[in-house]
Amino acid sequence: VLGLLVWALIADTTYHLHAAYGWVMFVSIFFWILTVLFFVTYLLQLQLKFYVIPWPLVLTIFNAVATVLYITAFVTCAAAVQPTSWRQWDYNRRAAASFFACLVMIAYGASTFFSFRAWKGLGSNAATSQVTDHA
């Protein structure tokens, strides 16, 4: 939802007049589409059918790349906001897009952390770590 807000707010401005917003639009739309595809994959449990793919590793790489590229998109978006814009509503939408890009960047960063822990198996609890097989 936050990624959708980023590109929808920018798309509602005259972003084509500023080259910096092209990068922000690419990053936000690209990762929004991929995130929706991953969501549908997990919602329909299609990852169980493709058991050969190491899904925790794929999600870790995806989230890490998304975090790095969203850092660049956030910085680009925030730096391109001009408070002396001749159209006040463009300024408001671009400032809001920068805010939501920061939130998306933080969300992907947290998701990278948790997917890395899942990939490395660091999320076990005390009950599963104490179980031993005495046969």
TrEMBL record:
Cellular localization per UniProt: Apical cell membrane; Myelin membrane
Pfam families listed in its UniProt record: MARVEL
Keywords: Cell membrane, Membrane, Transmembrane, Transmembrane helix
Single GO BP term: myelination
UniProt-listed InterPro entries: MAL, Marvel, MARVEL-CKLF_proteins
GO cellular component: apical plasma membrane; myelin sheath
Domain of life: Eukaryota
MF (Gene Ontology): structural constituent of myelin sheath
Transmembrane feature ranges: 20-44, 56-81, 96-116
Domain spans labelled MARVEL: 1-120
PROSITE patterns hit by this protein: MARVEL
Membrane topology type: Multi-pass membrane protein
Subunit details: Forms oligomers.
Family stated for the protein in its record: Belongs to the MAL family.
Protein name: Plasmolipin
Organism: Sula dactylatra
Taxonomic lineage: Eukaryota, Metazoa, Chordata, Craniata, Vertebrata
